[in-house]
Amino acid sequence: MAVGREIVTKIKSVQSTRKVTTALEMVSASKIKKAQEQMEASRPYVGKIKEMINHLAQASPEYKHPFMQDQEADRVGYIIISTDRGLCGGLNANLFKKAVINMRDWETKGKKIDVVTVGNKATSMFKNSSVNLQANISSLGDNPKLTELIGVVKVMLDAFMDGKVSQVYLVYNDFINTMTQQATVEQLLPLPAGEETIARNNWDYLYEPDAKEVLDNLMTRYIESLVYQGVLENLASEHAARMVAMKSATDNASDLIKDLQLVYNKARQAAITQEISEIVSGAAAV
Amino acid sequence: MSTIKCEIVSAENAIYSGDVAMVIASGVSGELGIAPRHTPLITQLKPGQVRVHLSDGSEQEFYVSGGILEVQPHLVSVLADTAIRAKDIDEAAAIKAKEEAENLLQDSNKQYDLAQVQADLAQAVAQIQAISRLKKKLKR
User: Fold this and answer.
1) Chain A residues with CB inside 8 Å of B77's CB?
2) Interface confidence (ipTM) of the complex
3) Residue B43: closest CA among chain A residues belongs to which residue?
4) Which among A147, A204, A209 has CB closest to B82?
5) What residue numbers bound the domain in which A249 lies?
């Protein structure tokens, strides 16, 4: 019986869409855990570096690292971390909105914007806008390595060291939990002055080769590891957002299928009723 | 036998943590052995091995591609780099990231050029049509 052929086709197509969204949902669900573990694993390193920097800042107060000093320049730098792929709800859109609002603020003060991007989405967003795209890296995948970030971070650090930018911001999605990701714009440079810890340490380190060089070294690594953490947070956020988006897509597909099935059943029933009444009236006529 | 706590971490993971009798690492100015109650020290590390001696006499080895070693009265921590760092290698990475962006911008210029060419083409086609129409009119 050729009733509602179109409806059947439509149901089939929605069903196959649902299969895809379900698969994506499950893939993301399994990846979140790994991304979270990576986030956890990188925390001790950042914590330790921060401790050491605080100590060094106290131990040699006469030497102030350039990263800690305010400076004037007519540009502001942003490191923007986005996802490589879409299908993750409004994650990137919200992030870019926040970043652009922040940039507008600076632009009204007459500053120009330099941007380095991590991830395809940010690149395609900012390459055709009025900001100045300085460097980019994309396709970091599910297992980002700090090594891959050294280049882009260095571009911004050099710009800061050369006095080309007065501030550097880090823009990423902060992973709060599976349901919540917070678009975050954070100031990287100049480093906000470290909290004045009580002078608990009356001892000082021996330095090899010397305090200044060690501090320089630590600073670069500190900034890099902050950016790396941002990348990991963003990765976890991506998977969480995708999982939620795909879950609601799956639910919507299920609803749609249910509705279509109902329409199909009604049409079929109507066709049968009509056929019967035709036969009955035909028989009555004979 | 006294021990000191030792932690080896990199930006990507925690590598080792435990109480040890001695830590041996290669600092920039020479091989170092850190025993408990060593004076506080910070040094940069050369790419090489970090060996920890446990109090039961066994030994564990880790390879680090550089990093920083910190000694506090009660704790030795090694911040290991995940890759060999050198000024020119970092520089090369920065240049590569810049080029990447330039290529992208170049590409978008190409797209822009494509649009320009298409516009020119459309204009030329319109002109040809106009001319051929004129010719037809003239023939009549």
Assistant:
1) 48
2) 0.72
3) A208
4) A147
5) 5-26+244-285
